[in-house]
Amino acid sequence: MSGQTMIGVIGGSGLYEIAGLEDANWVDVESPWGAPSDQILTGSLGGVAMAFLPRHGRGHVHSPTTVPYRANIDALKRLGVTDVISVSACGSFRDAMAPGDFVVVDQFVDRTIAREKSFFGMGCVAHVSVAHPTCPRLSDACETAARDAGVTVHRGGTYLAMEGPQFSTLAESRMYREVWGCDVIGMTNMPEAKLAREAELCYASVAMITDYDSWHPDHGEVDVTQIIATLMGNAEKARTMVAGLPALLGADRETCPHGCDRALEYAILTAPEKRDPALVAKLDAVAGRMLG
Ligand SMILES: CSC[C@H]1O[C@H](OP(=O)(O)O)[C@H](O)[C@@H]1O
Ligand SMILES: Nc1ncnc2[nH]cnc12
C-alpha cells in the first residue's frame, strides 16, 4: 500500500541498540500476542520513521526458542512499520562467505520445531505463499547500504533455520551444506519471515557471518567466544548499513511491486460467518485490512 515508510529493524545477537535516531524513545507496545522481546526504540533518521527491536531483548534474555516472534511482528505492524530488516548472526557453509561478510538471504529451510508459526488457526484459517519469503526491493536497499558501509556482501543465499540452542552436529552441518545446498545457518529467521509475510510486511534478512559452523576442516567446531568477537565488528558494520537505509528507501512508499503488502488478499479461507470473533479481534493489526 502506498503511504509513509517506517523501517523496522530487528537486531539479532550483538545488536541490541542503534545510535543516531532523532527523537529517540524506547516505547512499550502492547500486543494481543503477548509481550514483545523488549521495548521498541522509535525515532527517525533522515526524515524517515524508524523502529528498532532487539530480538533477544537488551541483555540477551530470550533464547531462539523463546523469542516471542508473533508479538514482535504484531508490535512492529501496530507501530506502523512497513519494511522489516532482520539482522542476524549466522554460521557459513561456504568458503567464500567468510566471517565478517554479510549475506542478503533470499531463501530459507525451516527446521524449527518448537515455535508458534502462524497468526492464523482455528476460527480464521489463512494460507499465504512464502515461495519467495524476502522482498527483492528491500533486499536491494540492504545490499546497497551494506556495500556503501564497506562490507563484503553476497546477494542471495539459503538460510537453514535450526531450533537450537545447541549448535549443529558435524553430520547435520555436512548434510545442510552438501546435501541440502544451504549457505548459512542461524536459529531465528523462522518463523519470523513467515509471520512478516502473514502481516503483509516487506521483509529482508541480512546474515552477518560469524563462523564456519562445524563442517570446515580448517576451523573446527563453533566457539561462542569467537562468535562474540566477530559479532563486535559486525555490529558496527550493521549500524552503518542501517544508517544508509532511509536515503535508499525514502519517506514516501509506493505499493510493493512484489506484492508483500497484499499477501493476504486471497489467503483467508474461513467464511465470515464461521470466523472466531476473539481471533479476529487479535488479528486487528496483522489482518485488519482484510478482516475489516
Ligand atoms: C550468539 S550465537 C547463536 C545465536 O546467534 C544468532 O542469533 P540472531 O539470529 O538473533 O542474530 C543465532 O540465531 C542464535 O540465536
Ligand atoms: N554456526 C551457527 N549455527 C547457528 N546459529 C548461529 N549463529 C551464529 N553462528 C551460528
Automatic annotation (TrEMBL):
One of its GO terms (cellular component) is cytosol. It catalyses: S-methyl-5'-thioadenosine + phosphate = 5-(methylsulfanyl)-alpha-D-ribose 1-phosphate + adenine. This is S-methyl-5'-thioadenosine phosphorylase. Its EC number is 2.4.2.28. The keyword Cytoplasm does not apply. The record marks 168, 224 as: Important for substrate specificity. Substrate binds at residues 187, 211-213. The keyword Glycosyltransferase applies. Keywords: Glycosyltransferase, Purine salvage, Transferase. Pfam families: PNP_UDP_1. Catalyzes the reversible phosphorylation of S-methyl-5'-thioadenosine (MTA) to adenine and 5-methylthioribose-1-phosphate. Involved in the breakdown of MTA, a major by-product of polyamine biosynthesis. Responsible for the first step in the methionine salvage pathway after MTA has been generated from S-adenosylmethionine. Has broad substrate specificity with 6-aminopurine nucleosides as preferred substrates. It comes from Boseongicola aestuarii. GO terms for biological process: L-methionine salvage from methylthioadenosine; purine ribonucleoside salvage. Signal peptide: none annotated. CDD domains: MTAP_SsMTAPII_like_MTIP (cd09010).
